[in-house]
Amino acid sequence: MEAGRTYTIKQTAEQTEVSEDAIRYYEKIALLPRADRKDNGHRIYRQEDVERIQLITCLKKTGMALEEMRPFLMVSADSDPAEYPELVELLRSHRGHIVSQIASLQQVVDFIDMKLEEGRYRRSCSDESEDGAYEPKPKSVSPVEMSYFPVSARAGKSSDS
User: Fold this and answer.
1) Which residues of 36-49 are buried (b: 16+ CB within 10 A; e: fewer)?
2) What share of the chain has pLDDT > 70, as a percent?
3) CA 68 vs CA 63, 82, 88: distances in Å
4) Is the confidence at residue 78, as pLDDT, over 60?
5) Burial class (CB in 10 A: 0-12, 13-18, 19+), 159
């Protein structure tokens, strides 16, 4: 995109993969500055607006609330983070929450994987003994499973057997 070029709301929405309604909403709540208008009243956006919408999108993906984004949007993109230690601390804290969420989600994935491996539909021919009976292969247990699942589940035994 060219620095001096302007974009319609439709073009901006396509470039940022954000709906036109969301762009209007960001303007309404002042996350985006009010767009300039053409003589016919249609909004026009500049490259800086597109980059700001992309930053909003990125911060949203981290789970940050729109209101929490304001301080980050007020700072110039080429600013030195050392000039804003409070923002650096906010980002570190937010990062910690994300890391915690990732660990929690990994526990869920490990649980699902364990259940899938216990299921009959996950057997391979090599899982059967010579008499045709099913012999489950022992599963290596991750540290996450060790802390999350009861001992009977970690041992590959169901609690009702």
Assistant:
1) eeeeeeebbbbeeb
2) 72
3) 10, 20, 13
4) yes
5) exposed
